[in-house]
Amino acid sequence: MVDFPALETSRLTLREIVELDAENIFRIHGDAEYMRWFGSDPIPDLDGAAKLVATFASWRKGPVSGARWAVELRDQPGLIGTCGLFRWNRNWRSCVVGYEIAPAHQGRGYVKEALKAIITWGFREMQLNRIEAQVHPDNTASLALLEALGFLQEGRQREAGYWAGRHHDLLQYALLKAQWSTANAV
């Protein structure tokens, strides 16, 4: 991917994450309570957020690449969350989806709207056949979101994740291109 794929929905702009987003990234990723489901420890400071921005940018250049979008409201610029397709296995035509949104913006359907856009883009532009997600079993909101998008649970990965000083089971979900209906496409 040479040019970053900017996407738009009726309420959102999905764009490249840039250094100016580090403060908003820190507000989300520095919140220990909110990050309990994310799969990594909270970022300790603004420098850590800047490093995360650089990590997201590096995904476009690596051999197992992907893309992470800044999610912002169309009428109010400023990152409110991120979503991405990463660990892209070109030979298998598969990748993993990840997402988070600031607590103040939860419950408004923004993540679902953003995911519809990137999933559609992934199936069309990346030629994906399979998109996977791993979610903590107690993250009921994320599980409901994935199921609403058509992801199916495939099993439990015992102690597959490690954060907050302990191992965590994760539920494996996946969505196949054949299951993605045109009604979901944006």
UniProtKB/TrEMBL annotation:
* Enzyme Commission identifier(s): 2.-.-.-
Q: Which PROSITE patterns match?
A: GNAT
Q: Which residues form the N-acetyltransferase domain?
A: 12-176
Transferase: present as a keyword of the record?
A: yes
Q: Which GO MF terms does the UniProt record name?
A: transferase activity
Keywords assigned by UniProt, alphabetized: Transferase
Which InterPro entries does the entry mention? Acyl_CoA_acyltransferase, GNAT_dom, N-acetyltransferase
Q: What is this protein called?
A: GNAT family protein
